[in-house]
Amino acid sequence: MRSVGVEEELLLVDARTGEPQALSTAVLAAVSRESGGEPEVFEAELHRQMLEFGTRPQTGMGDLAEEIVRWRAEAARHAEDLGAAVVALATSPLPVSPSIGSGERYQWLEEQFGLTTQEQLTCGCHVHVSVDSDEEGVAVLDRIRPWLSVLLAMSANSPFWQGKDSRYSSYRSRVWGRWPSSGPVEIFGSADRYHEQVDDMLGTGALRDKGMIYFDARLSHHYPTVEVRVADVCLDPSTTVLLATLVRGLVETAARQWRAGEPPARHGVGLLRLAAWRAGRSGLEGELIHPVTMRPAPAEVVVRALFDHVRDALEDSGDVISAQEGLAALLKGGNGARIQRDLLSRSGGLRGVVTECVSRTRG
Description:
InterPro entries: GCL_type2/YbdK_subfam, GCS2, Gln_synth/guanido_kin_cat_dom, YbdK
CATH class: Alpha Beta
Distance between the termini: 27 Å
Low-confidence stretches: none
CATH topology: Creatine Kinase, Chain A, domain 2
Protein name: Putative glutamate--cysteine ligase 2
Oligomer: single chain
Keywords: ATP-binding, Ligase, Nucleotide-binding
Helix content: 40-55%
Number of strands: 11
GO molecular function: ligase activity
Function: ATP-dependent carboxylate-amine ligase which exhibits weak glutamate--cysteine ligase activity.
């Protein structure tokens, strides 16, 4: 069975006001003192109002769920010692002046990309799924392309930006799309062609390193995995687990298609960009662009098409029932964007939204 790992980025906020706080250095120092030299789970991110953690590779989704809940709770504990809190929101609902980290890499990004770097206070969720080789990994990338926009719609958790409703479900996806290397990609056809494309992009001098290959899905340059990077960080940890379950199903389904000689869908990058825009705009409300037909269809129909597409892989991994239940709960209760807007209508203020989401972050 393929292993799965998850990286989540969290916002650090003032426990009383809900405003983002540049405390990642202090939190990481506290973690380091307590860990006694053990491998670090938490890492700094581009902005000091963010904290990232990564799980170990897991084959059981129950074990993955336990890790996500555990590390969210640990992050919250360390933040609480500083009068702060962590919250799984992909953008800050309240106005914020982002503070870029002091590392050499982050300073280079600010110098080269200016306002784009300054405004990248966004939190995503990255799912790693093991593959046997780069050749298998690229075959997977070629075949999952049309389905990535559905994952974005399901995870959408960033309706607010600088104190205003953006009118998007995932405004993070719009901000992230400002990087020149981000978004959907072409069909590569082989691992050699993939690596050639990456080398050519680095050869332009516009990108610092392979870490800036910001494709919606890519080969990890650290692990033998396909890394799906399209999603917002999810408000509820159960949604993160559902996302990871479906991503593993997509990877396994694509690998089986490749071994069976089935070619990837030939949708052009232009169509995939439109599908991603619609997913970021609509989330699970209204219509999405169907990955097979590339025509509008109700969001629920599209989400269920994703489930049907990976159902055989889910059956084989023992995840089909939990995925069914998770999808039903998500479609009924809504993604993070809908929950945030519902909270605003009840609380009357964005601070109330953040306060409630702090509680929901632990699940």
